[in-house]
Automatic annotation (TrEMBL):
It holds the Pfam family YdjM. InterPro entries: YdjM-like. Keywords: Hydrolase, Membrane, Transmembrane, Transmembrane helix. It comes from Amycolatopsis thermalba. The chain crosses the membrane at residues 113-130, 137-156, 162-180, 221-247. This is Metal-dependent hydrolase.
Amino acid sequence: MMGSTHALTGWCAGLALAPAIGAGSVHQALAFAATTAGFALLPDLDHPHARASKLLGPITGLVCWLLRHTSAALYKVTKGPRDERGRGSHRHLSHTLLFAIGLGAATTYGTRAGGWYVVAGVVLFALLLAADALGDWLLLVAGGGVLWWALTASAAAELSQLTGWLGIAVAVGCFVHCLGDALTESGCPFLFPVPIAGETWYELRPPAFLRFRTGKGVEKFLIVPVFTVLAVLLVPGAWAGLVGLFAEPTVAAGG
């Protein structure tokens, strides 16, 4: 799945989930959704040519190197008798439910320990990831909105309310990435280490007629347009505003 599609699906998942975790204001919902959108790209840090791996130059490059070698070492000692002969450095460790839960738990601990400063850092990093996939316009628009919000008196309090909950956004973003890759022809081993049919890294995928090829017609002309529309409609107040815009004006009754 393309990076832009991962980011779009992560954004929509975040907006849909935000009310359930108590992100009541528009700012909180957007911060939560920006986090899911950004971290829906993070599992591809296990590929040296991925946009996420090049985002912060040598910093993300080092993270990519560490993740690839850790994944390869883990694959070597855990692969089952029917697992493929590859190195296991790409689409393995970072593409598992275990990784999503672990990173989410680490984020929860970090935000609780560090407070709203850490929350702001996580959201900013996620925003940079998402903007890198969707375009600089997102950084300009969302970044300008975040800067304006940061200057208001309520920013710190609203960010503090996300402390602890942001780990859910991180985990959901990674999981959405895995789910998207599972729908492609390559599949995704996100149930590791559960052994299935002799494979520890069993690549889950739907029946052949439901799979699609990355960057081809189904993704470009069906999935991307649908989630682009949802990305707007799921913003708090957007649907009500749209209905109000097209609603027929009420004719006042005569006296």
